[in-house]
Amino acid sequence: MRVAAPHPDFPTLTVVDHPLVRHKVTLLRDRETSVKTFKELVDEIAMLMAYEATADLAVEPIPVETPLESTTGWAVAGKKLVLVPILRAGLGMVEGILRLVPSARVGHIGLYRDHDTLEPVDYYFKVPGDAESRDFLLLDPMLATGGSAAAAVSSLKRAGANSVRLLCLVAAPEGVRKMADAHPDVHVFTAALDRQLNESGYILPGLGDAGDRLFGTR
Ligand code: PRP
Ligand code: URA
Question: Whole-prediction pTM value?
Answer without folding.
Answer: 0.95
